[in-house]
Amino acid sequence: MQGVKMTATRESYGNTLVELGKEDNRIVVLDADLAGATRTAYFKKAYPDRHIDCGIAEANMVGIAAGLATAGMIPFISSFAMFAAGRAYEQIRNSVGYPHLNVKIGATHAGISVGEDGATHQCNEDVALMRTVPGMVIINPADDVEARAAVRAAAMYDGPVYLRFGRLPVPVIHSDPDYKFEIGKGIQLSEGEDVTLVATGLMVAKALEAVKYLEADGIHAGVIDIHTIKPLDSEIILKAAGKTGKIVVLEEHSVIGGLGSAVSELLSELFPIPVKRIGINDVYGRSGPAEELLHYYGLDTEGIYRQVKGFL
């Protein structure tokens, strides 16, 4: 997107941690030998006495964070989503979720947009895993502005939070100075009469682009930014369902267990209408440039446009 500021949300995460570290000495950051990639190295440089490199031992890192939380600290643990949500799932469930401790999980490099790292590092299941942990808040910001606000909101929230960040630079879409972030509240970015696109993370910008293509065909689509997947903003989704009668969910995640599942569960119980889920269709990722992979899996603007047209 020419002329639009592009920033990876992992950068937003690292920069905001530094700001929070200056404001609150209870903030402590732990990483698993990936400080450079997760951008927690920024915090390490600014506050070395409050940074702990746990090495390639993610499960142990969660345990240390749990102990720090019981001592009144606000720990942020950081690693790739594949390791933070996957490798350390049991410890998150039992050591953080069960006692409902104040631990924040900064999971970077989520989804297929990790690119060349390939299927072993492309975590398309993390939201599904974290949704099953009782009391876990899940946030997947769409851009730099939203990511910064999300990290701050997570720090202020008393309880476990899973924050999902990407490697791929994404356009800044929340340029309105009146932008307000609130955990559990979606944002209506545009109104439509024919269909509503409910998107999360980097798919929000893709949805906004796809709307332009649909408009050229006389299809009026609304867009909702769901940054908080759990708790889900049922009010904004039910309102859109009543207005357009059709919902398309867009996520850089498996269609099983993610935002699409959450929206489908809600609507099947309270307002049954046709729902189309656009995401990773029960397959593993592949190695390649991020944008080419998004195209391959139908998650680019063209792919979204084509699938929404087919659905309608």
Automatic annotation (TrEMBL):
Q: Which domain of life is it from?
A: Bacteria
Q: Which cofactor does it need?
A: thiamine diphosphate
Q: Which residues cross the membrane?
A: none
User: What sequence ranges are listed for the domain Transketolase-like pyrimidine-binding?
Assistant: 7-172
- Asked if Lipid biosynthesis is a keyword of the record, the answer is no
Is Cell inner membrane tagged as a keyword?
no
Q: What is this protein called?
A: Transketolase family protein
UniProt source species:
Enterocloster aldenensis
Organism lineage: Bacteria, Bacillati, Bacillota, Clostridia, Lachnospirales
